[in-house]
Design goal:
The complex is a heterodimer of chains A (278) and B (265). Chain A is built from eleven helices and no strands. Helix content of chain A is 76%, strand content 0%. Chain A has a domain of 192 residues: Orthogonal Bundle (MetI-like fold), CATH 1.10.3720.10. With 278 residues, chain A is mainly alpha-helical. With 265 residues, chain B is an alpha/beta fold. Chain B is 40% helix and 23% strand. In chain B, the strands form two sheets. Chain B has a six-stranded mixed sheet, sandwiched between helices. In chain B, strands 2-1-4-5 form a four-stranded antiparallel sheet, with helices on one face. The chains are: A mainly alpha (278), B alpha/beta (265).
Amino acid sequence: MTLSLEAASIDEEPGSAIGARPSRRLSLPWISVATVGVLIGLWSLVSYYRLVPPLFLPSPLAVSRALSGLATTGFVDATLAQHVAASLSRIFGALGVALVLGVPAGLAIGTSRWGKGILDPIVEFLRPLPPLAYLPLVIIWLGIGEASKIAVIALAMLPPIILSTASGVKSASSDHINAARAFGASRRQLLQYVILPGALPSILTGTRIALGAGWSTLVAAELVAATRGLGFMIQSAAQFLVTDIVIAGIVVIAVVAFLFEVVARWIERRLVPWSSRR
Amino acid sequence: MSVLRLENISLRYPSGDGGSQAPLILDRINLDIADDDFIVVIGRSGSGKTSLLNLAAGFLPPSSGHVTLDGRSLSGPGSDRAVVFQDDALYPWLTAIENVAFPLRLRGLGREQRLKEAQALLERVGLPSAGAAKVWELSGGMRQRVGIARALASHPRFLLMDEPLGALDALTRVRMQGFLLDMWQASRAGALLITHSIDEALMLATRIVVLSAGPGRIAKAIPVRFARDYLAGVPQPELRASTQFRRLHDDLTGFIHSEDEGVAA
């Protein structure tokens, strides 16, 4: 019994396909790292041989110098850390607002006929609109301060959160609900103990999608009357044709968004470990 | 003595237009379940076995007829009737012991009190050290034991079980049959169990109810004594090997097959 189990586990070398030798294969992360390396190498070659003028494509070295300059002396009256902090506070502020409004709205759509009837058309109106289209209107209503920026980002985050919450509620197992009903659960208990935790994996997925939407809206929101933020930084660098700062800003956004994704997946594994197992 | 009674129950699939031509699923079912009964409903798929259990549990309203408990008419699910599902229906976001404690939490019992009761129940189902385990870490048989412990936590007067052993492998299944009988005897709750296994029906039932299909009717009700013999100490293999067990097995197989042909003709 033990012997056969051991024999079986030797064959199950992680990442090996049938007939392939594990030792000769490059693992998936290394393939990705190699790809990034090759792209940066190509970029260096292009700028070294001046195939593209530095004004359009500064060298990787220039961009990394711009990055360290950003970190120490900063750009347009703020250091990189201050720009990042300004953007992050808008993203998290908007995410908070979107979750506080979106999760109850999604629960209402998923659990009640009235909720669905009232909220569906509103969500379907909002969902396909590009945030830039309602940004001017939000500025007229809320002014050019933080409120309008957070509102625009939150509006972009709402539909994915509402829709994923509603779909999580609708996919709740009828056995789970019936079991609780048989134990005498009230409507509120059913919602709190069964439907909401059951919808949690879906809500977290919606939150990840919302963060993506939030980043794309952030840059647009910071184009208008901001004095800090990554979007603002890129925009003003572009006006002075400081291309290395523009590229550095883009890289910073990409890295921060990637870290968000990593953290979000870590939270998912901690909070809803069952969703990948059942 | 408590009696859960299905009185002249018929069930049609709800049709959107309220027309009377909706297909009949169950046709005038009369069934009494006393609290010392272990009733096993058997029938081929499509005979409305599960609908019958859902009606008894109160998940479905009957199209006509009544479900009563000691003469009192029931209109929905309630903690007097606990349900065990084929697909365990445990909550994956709770640990095993929290699942067992769930009905007590609904009743507003404090955390310490309910975990203490849940631990005692886990010990009763033979899983004294499984409390902290996540649901997905347990085997199918263990999950079903946790599901039964959870059902018992609400101190039900009736246990309604929808193919609770259907997803288990053959060996675990036989072991769980003995376990179910022990639990039934200790809990003093009446039991209604749905299965498509004739062997399981004979092993568990004090009365077997055969449901015919299209529409579901009670075709036959047979009193059986193997369950009581087992509880009196006769081992399962001996019961299975007895002439009487085999004869009843053959009779029931023949009867259900002839039903099939009747439908096909």
